[in-house]
Recover the amino acids of this structure.
């Protein structure tokens, strides 16, 4: 479905870098991959790096809300990383910039988990 | 084709199956068509999102599960405005039946919120049994 993932486990969190276009077609793949990661963790602290995501639609935003909820259920947290004004604009329009912890770099997001 | 007169010469039309794997084809149409016109990259990306969201709504809500159908995407322009129109062959809805995408409380509403915000003008026409047509306009800068 054209999405690829690079997952790296750190001391107290997991970084999941996503590459591709997140839309109605590929969103199922994202959900399945993240669910696998969450289920393996006792505390689901996830940093999702979206800097290589070229496109995201409302179904992708909806799935991110679900992932955030699932992380919270596992005593964790979902942080998002992106530096794209285009993607930031979509979060602003939908008000989701007030829902997610959003950082420009993975290092900034990781510092919060230290 | 509504809202723009004298634009027949610029009309491009494609039909895609109601399958999400064809969304990328639609986005390629948007970027290809707009590359002929004086829009910047951000404007092209915004229209891609809007048109793709209109297709999302049609693919997710216009048809019964596993029903085969199609979407028709038309684009045209005159000197003032660019238009993209997404029509489905699905079940349609009446404005009073609560199915209109006017709520930001669910994913469908989220998509329609993006369409309304990213485009300059949006028109929705639907009738039960005849499908839904969403027409979106973007002003051409002088």
């Amino acid at each position: 479905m054209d999405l690829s993932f690079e997952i790296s486990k750190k001391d107290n969190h997991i970084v999941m870098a996503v590459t591709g276009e997140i839309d109605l077609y590929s969103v199922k793949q994202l959900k399945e991959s993240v669910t696998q990661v969450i289920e393996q963790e006792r505390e689901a602290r996830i940093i999702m790096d979206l800097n290589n995501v070229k496109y995201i639609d409302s179904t992708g935003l909806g799935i991110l809300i679900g992932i955030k909820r699932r992380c919270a259920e596992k005593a964790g947290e979902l942080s998002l990383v992106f530096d794209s004004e285009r993607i930031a604009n979509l979060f602003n329009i939908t008000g989701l910039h007030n829902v997610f912890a959003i950082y420009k770099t993975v290092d900034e997001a990781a510092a919060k988990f230290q | 084709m509504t809202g723009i007169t004298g634009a027949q010469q610029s009309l491009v039309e494609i039909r895609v199956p109601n399958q999400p794997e064809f969304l990328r084809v639609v986005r390629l149409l948007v970027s290809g068509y707009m590359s002929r016109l004086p829009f910047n990259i951000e404007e092209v990306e915004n229209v891609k999102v809007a048109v793709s969201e209109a297709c999302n709504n049609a693919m997710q809500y216009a048809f019964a599960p596993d029903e085969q159908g199609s979407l028709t995407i038309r684009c045209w322009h005159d000197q003032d405005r660019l238009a993209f129109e997404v029509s489905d062959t699905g079940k349609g809805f009446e404005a009073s039946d609560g199915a209109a995408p006017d709520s930001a409380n669910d994913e469908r509403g989220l998509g329609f919120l993006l369409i309304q915000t990213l485009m300059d003008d949006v028109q929705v026409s639907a009738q039960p049994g005849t499908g839904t047509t969403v027409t979106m306009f973007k002003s051409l800068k002088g």
